[in-house]
Please model this.
Amino acid sequence: MEALPIELWPEGAPFAQGSGEEDRPAITPYLVEGSEPTAAVIVCPGGGYARRAAHEGEPIAQWLNTLGISAFVLRYRVAPYRHEATLGDAQRAIRYVRSRAKEWNIDAGRVGILGFSAGGHLASSAGTHYDSGQAESEDPVERESCRPNLMVLCYPVISFGEYRHEGSLTNFLGEEPSEELVRLFSNELQVTADTPPTFLWHTGDDASVPVENSLLLAAALSKHNVPFELHSYTSGRHGLGLAQTHPEAQTWPDLCARWLRRFEFAQPVPIELQE
Model:
């Protein structure tokens, strides 16, 4: 059955500038059937906050399904929308999945977020800017926490400082953002001891998003004793996705799967497949 998008705000999203598809954030579910509740991961494709790359959406959800993880590809708003709307879309997606956890056979305590490039910035923003929900809200979705339980960040935009990706910064914050706003969304500066465990990978000569983005976040996670795993491959272009044809980076899905098992997100490897 074809996966169909579910609008996060059926009556119209906050900050909506119109009523077209790009004004209506949504998640497309790829659910895993099973007797026990599964973990879930929100997938944020990259695209410089100007678009959303297809190869970083559905194929990633299908890979997560092979690990026994239900996945949700997020159609978040991009330019001309700014950070208030875009981050709100990611936060709403996490809340929404938790609000329907019982219906979808999902463990609300195992909801993660995964992102590529600018989608990695969005995912890391969700992991460093969150709340526990509004208990008194009339909307049951808004009563849920929007803190992800873990993050997977693939060649992510992290910092809007020296190693920034100009297009992502401009599309997310506008032409002349304040220093305060730039600092607020340089997510390596927002890490605390409560930041979720994080898996990162990057290529050392990424010409679009410098590897220092991942290095800065890893250093901040280490400083605050947050569990993380970082893989830096010697060489490779930006935007590799599953990297199936890259001689080295093609290992990242297996490495990530092992890491996800450590945090009880992915199903254990069947005994007959263990070495």
